[in-house]
Amino acid sequence: QVQLVESGGGLVQAGGSLRLSCAASGRIFSFNTMGWYRQAPGKERELVALITSGASINYADSVKGRFTISRDNAKNTLYLQMNSLRPEDTAIYYCNIQTLGRAYWGQGTQVTVSS
User: Which tens digit of pLDDT belongs to each residue from 69-107?
Assistant: First the structure.
């Protein structure tokens, strides 16, 4: 089993910044993919950014140039630096890890951007 615990969400004004963290624990294989997803009210969950254990990265077009995903493999911790936040970034942000053929999710952290 794998446990994911997110932190760092909150309320911020448009143009502001937040940094999300996700601490992973449990049975995690060295080769894995971690990512951030988000779900806004009334919308489906969508990919924000992915990073592999080899540091390959993909971003959703809507966050390119504003968000930065990173990870500390020694600490099994995932980060998402979010700059130039917009009201449309308001959502619950979920951490995800794919390891040993399975996917696990965190409980989510709320990010609210006021205009």
Answer: 999 988 989 999 999 999 999 999 999 999 888 999 999
Burial of 2 (0-12, 13-18, 19+ CB in 10 A): buried
Please return the burial class of 70, using the count of CB atoms within 10 Å of its CB with bins 0-12, 13-18 and 19+.
middle
In order of 39, 48, 115, the CA distances from 94 in angstroms are 8, 9, 23
> Given its phi and psi angles, is residue 55 left (phi above 0), alpha (psi -120 to 50 degrees) or beta?
left
7-23, pLDDT tens digit by residue? 999 999 999 999 999 99
List Cβ neighbours of 18 (8 Å cut-off, separation of 6 or more). 8, 9, 10, 12, 82, 85, 111
Residue 49 has pLDDT above 90, yes or no: yes
Report the 10 Å Cβ neighbour count for 102: 11
Q: Which amino acid is at 24?
A: A
